[in-house]
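hey can u check if this looks right to u? its 254 residues, i copy pasted from the old doc so theres a chance i mangled smth
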Amino acid sequence: MRQVKIHTGTLLAAGLIAGLIAGLAGCGSSDGGGSGARPSGTGRPVAAEPQRSGRQRAEIATVRGRQIAVHKQKGDGAAWKTLASPNAMGATRVFLVEAKDGGWLKVLLPVRPNGSTGWVKASDVTLSSTSHRVEIDPRAFTFTVFDGDKVLRTGKVATGEGGTPTPAGRYYFTELVKPPNPGGAYGAYAFGLSGFSPTLKTFAGGPGQLAVHGTNKASALGSRVSHGCVRVGNDDITWMAKNLAIGTPVVVKK
């Protein structure tokens, strides 16, 4: 595998921000969105260790061309799906690699139902890797960012309320946007996720895509208040935006 340095999430063009924000499920506040006050920092940064050889790394596949054929099984003649790159939000299309078999890669897809996988040709993507991952515990209302087995940062989260829960599963970051108003309901940054709301098939004209984003109401962290997205403090999402790559795995525990 070719080792390629992963850069942190590249911000989308300003004209695309509104489209993503409008379509994210759960980013609209079920409690009114707050007054716009800046939340205080909720994360606890921990010093990172130097990378050790053998540390488990997630592989990320970045699409080379303007589209990519996805197959149900490796070696299938006809494509099952054809996905464009950039994606609908203007970000270069990436996948999280689940398995490799010769010239084929089994990848996690950003489509419904959550957890869907397909096969793509290795020659159609560029491979890179990351030792980072994000784990979200809805029961404890916490997130933890790991570098291998080392904890880098922890903090509080808010999750989906009863009728619009945050679904458990394995996802990854698909794009990063900076809302025009950092004091708004979406906070300083928003990462799109590869998953979707299980109850909202559409939201504000979009497909009900999930996200991890900041908030202007830090007092709501530690509770179920969203339409499915995961809210974190603005200090935390700013740290993530600076340190985590598009394609970073995100696990929401049951």
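The domain at 14-44+131-252 is CATH 2.40.440.10 (L,D-transpeptidase catalytic domain-like).
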